[in-house]
Design brief:
The chain has 2 helices and no strands. By secondary structure, the chain is mainly alpha-helical. The longest helix has 22 residues, at 2-23.
């Protein structure tokens, strides 16, 4: 159930962000925002260090 909720939340955020980007003025520099979630609890197994994974993703996206 939590996975479905997370997927729906991500889809909602993406759809809002896409519609917002279509409305904004393209002459202005755009600020980009990303939601990075470090989820380590999965049904099949747990990730060793989800917090570090999320931090590394944050660094990678800042480039």
């Amino acid at each position: 159930m939590k996975i479905i909720l997370i997927v729906v939340l991500i889809i909602l955020i993406l759809s809002v962000s896409i519609s917002y980007s279509q409305v904004t003025n393209t002459n202005q520099p755009q600020r980009k925002v990303a939601l990075v979630i470090g989820n380590g609890t999965y049904i099949s197994s747990e990730l060793a260090n989800p917090e570090n994974d999320a931090k590394e993703m944050k660094i990678a996206l800042q480039i």
